[in-house]
Amino acid sequence: MSEEAKAKGNSAFSSGDYALAIRHFTDAISLSPTPNHVLYSNRSAAHASLGDFSSALSDAQKTVDLNPSWPKGYSRLGAAHLGLKDYSAAVSAYKKGLELDPSNEALKSGLADAEAAASTASRSRARGTGEGMSNPFGEIFKGQEMWAKLTADPKTRGYLAQPDFVKIMQDIQRDPSSMNLYLKDPRVMQAFGVLLNVNFSTRPGGSEDAEMAEETREEKRDEVRPRRPPAAAPAESMEVEEDLGEEKGKKDKKERAKKEKEEGNAAYKKKDFEKAIECYSRAIELDDEDISFLTNRAAVYLEMGRCEDCIKDCDKAVERGRELRSDFKMIARALTRKGTALVKLAKSSKDYEPAIETFQKALTEHRNPDTLKKLNDAERAKKELEQQEYFDPKIADEEREKGNEFFKDQNYPEAVKHYTEALKRNPMDPRVYSNRAASYTKLGALPEGLKDAEKCIELDPTFSKGYNRKGAIQFFMKEYDKALETYQEGLKHDPSNQELLDGVRRCVEQINKASRGDFTPEELKERQAKAMQDPEIQNILTDPVMRQVLVDFQENPKAAQEHTKNPMVMSKLQKLVSAGIVQIR
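Request: output the structure for the sequence above.
Response:
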């Protein structure tokens, strides 16, 4: 349920509904069985997108507290401090993140923004126009109202789909005095006009007043100078016609490029890859403002196994897409395709690193499920290759022998260290799992020991030591009925094993002791408390049939006699007796 709420939050965030995203992430946090740093990080981002940087800071700090080694947490922390104009804290947070991940582009970009903002604020204070003085336009950029107005206007609504515009508006929202840095961007002027309810002209030629002034000056010059000869008029008409012709030619090229793309798509579907490449190449020559031609040709190269050519086209698409401010989904597609090509070229675990980094960059542009799956597959393949590259049975045996020596010397932590290294070198040796389980038992780390004993049995079901280790741990955990089952299972494979036989005897003694109620009050209380934490015991006690059985044993001897004929009921009853929950007298 927590994962479902998280997915809904991610979807709402991607669609720009940050308030809804916050609600879903809050639900996910409350439903998560353990504190999850990713959920707090996501909610921090949603708060920051709404301009609520105080809440964003609280969630970012929680993220870092839960996982201090996660670089992205410091990115969230830096962004929140930056939004609150605490530039020194922002710089510190970004630097701390870069200590953990020096190549993280998001942290580098955030640090640059924080340092630039700090520098701007310092210069503003020196001029007497710093944060201490009120900004006349500060109010119009505050809170959710700014985003609501920009969403309501048809022109600025389209800008909100452009990440660089959203970042600019977030910068201005954090520091209204930085607006002067972006006034050359016509989108910012358009947004400024919407927020002030004023219609600004953003035509390249300047304002209407400037044009009128120029016309007035021309009229005055005409009064003292003869007018131009009429012959100049045709030249002006020709210039206009030339402009129209150039525009028409550009439009025709785009249409032809589009047709080439369609032909390329048809050839690709027919697996006529050479023709597809020719069509996409002609489309690129005709129109270099549509990066889909490059990504399509890259897809063909990928199918042909020409991965280097695919990567080159993807790099060109990303570079050109950023110049043209193309849809972030197109840039993400190019990066995903490049990552796929890098995976195909990978021959060692290190070769997967650039592919993983490329997939991560793609996900920062657009969170696509297919890209996320490719990232997970690449990380898994890298891990498997690392294990294969590290695999060495000879070194594993040497490490196991070292562990045995430390175990004999009762230096159990060092024994665990060497057994762990042995398993990294050879993860399929059941003897090492058995030995490490024994070390964990000596250290009192019973859950870890139980896990190793179960892995030992999984690798070699006939290895009696595995059953002995598991049964001993269960006995120490006072789960006598489970320990008895383990010892009996081991005896099926090795009927004369004395350690297993002794284990059975000890378990039977304890179970009989429980049946007689031969426990001190403290022992009984401890056993009952432990038993109530066992999911199996909980299920038995909440089973309506078993509850009726217990009532019958107390109040209806005749019905109780009938229950004793049911082996399933008696098995569950025996578990309750062994756990100290029920006593038979």
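The chain is about 75% helix and 0% strand.
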